Amino acid sequence: STMEETDREAVATAVQRVAGMLQRPDQLDKVEQYRRREARKKASVEARLKAAIQSQLDGVRTGLSQLHNALNDVKDIQQSLIDVNKDWRQSINTIENLKDVKDAVVQHSQLAAAVENLKNIFSVPEIVRETHDLIERGELLQAHRKLMDLECSRDNLMYEQYRMDSKNTHDMSLIHTYFGDMQKLSEELAKQLWMVVQRSLVTVRRDPTLLVSVVRIIEREEKIDRRMLDRKKQTGFIPPGRPKKWKEKMFNILERTVSTRIEGTQADTRESDKMWLVRHLEIIRKYVLDDLLVAKTLLDQCFPPHYDIFNRLLNMYHQALATRMQELAAEDLEANEIVSLLTWVLNTYTSAEMMGNSELSPEVDVNSLDDLISQNVVDQLLSKYMSTLTSNIIGWLRKALETDKKDWIKETEPEADQDGYYQTTLPAIVFQMFEQNLQVAAQINEDLKTKVLVLCLQQMNSFLTRYKDEAQLYKEDHLKNRQYPQCYVQYMIAVINNCQTFKESIISLKRKYLKSDMEDTLSISHANMDATLDIIAKEGCSSLLDEVFMDLEPHLNELMTKKWLMGSNAVGTICVTVEDYFNDFAKIKKPYKKTMTLEAHRRVVVEYIRAIMLKRISFKNAEERKEGAERMIKEAEQFRFLFKKLAAGSGEDTEGLCDIIEAIAEVIKLTDPSLLYLEVSTLVSKYPDIRDDHIAALLTVRGDASRDMKQTIIETLDQGPSQPNPNYVPIFKEITVPTLTVPKLLK
User: What residues form the membrane-spanning segments (predicted)?
Assistant: First the structure.
């Protein structure tokens, strides 16, 4: 059994411990000591065991007594439940008999309410009268207080009726009719409130307390609305006319007022006033800014914060403005009106003169305002503007040119600028018009400004082509009758000078209105215009020189004739005539004048050489040759002197031209015919464009070279080297020689 096993284990353990204690002989002396120690240990263990068993027994005893008590309690409860059940069954009948009491209680509460309201009910007509008087006198708060009392009486009566018998509509409508006048009072009061609300921006300056009263009345009504709606959720009853929603109505009234205010600012129509739109927009700007400033500084304080009155008003104004601007955009606007509208919508609206006003910040943030008109509408307006502007510019340019042409046939000289150069008003008129349109476009935005500039320059381009054609026609008309127009030369000079003015104006216009990164897009049209202007100026200059040479023709015809040899003054007259013309040409602007002087110089020399090549004279002898040659040298000197004077200050070296006449004179002057070949070859090497027929003509004028000699010289020359001056501009190639005699000569 387990006990025996335990005993055995205990003995084995004891043996082991004793063996452990008595390892050495000397430990035997301590056996007594060991025995005592073990006896103590054993006694201690036994005492602990006893205590443990004792406490276990106590616990069991307590538990048993508690279980016994619980059993008794359960029996008691069971008995009580049986008693309750019996009582309840008996009392059911009694409860059913109490229904009458319940009805009496309901009736009592209704009667109590009726008694409570009796004094009110009897005094309803009188209170209605008093309330009406208070409204008439504008004592709105007191009037509303009485109205609230009346409504309260009616609503309580109706509620009691509803509770007692919700199906009885007859009694309900009886109460409703009895309180009928009260409904009219409510409407009358509302009318007064809405009048104050409509004029709130004025009222708030004159009588802010009135506005505050109105807001308080609206707030009271809102509170009653909320209470009634809560009761409806619980009972299903709501009095007639509720909820009144006066706060919502107030905001609707404000919205209508704002719309009317903005629509009402258009005083004029286009028929009565060309500036109608500018005025209309300016009045709107002023009104809206004033109204919003009042709303921010005064109105805000009259309303509870949760009305957020300023922001609500700001939105109303923004919406009303957007509607008005869309209406205006849909009208058939003229170009300047489109600009006014867009400038206002895109710039003025958000500027410091309006929504960006410092006094409106931080409540108004212009960056968060929506657009008044959509980008799509803006684009439509801009494209309409551009097409109108295009046709306007074409019309203006045409008209400007027509007006200018009328000046060309005047009998008075054109006006001169501050430096004395002739000009007409055309460039100033054209560029003033461009400037005005660019300034207008710049008010709207950069992009439009660039478009308008491109448009102006495009139109300018085609305009200059017309200008060129008109100048050409002017010249042709004049050639039909050189007496007319009287100031042809002066106006042609003005046309030439205008070209320079146009060039400068185009550059300054681009510099002023074009961003540098756009430069490339216009460079081609700019180059075209410059080219056209150069052609006009060049043709103008050459037509003026034609004038000079038409006058010189009779005198040029006298050169290299017998008369000339005898001592005519043709060259003197030529010089005087040229100088006379150049007094006028002094009114031509620098770059063109310089070209004119060079060209005149060149043409005089060409005509002179042509006169030699015409072989109008053939010298008879050395004496005549000497006389003719010296005359030529003297005349070359006269030309040189003249053109030096004309080119004064231009730093032009035109010496070389007159040298050609002198070089030809040397060939004619030569006395030793054997040196003729040498002299001619020197001439040819300097001026390599001299042709054989020129040399033949020259030798004919000389008058002493045989046909064979001419032949030999010409054939030999072909092999010679040439050393022209690097600056030499071929001059002989322009000169033709009468050909009749050439074949004969060369046979």
Answer: none
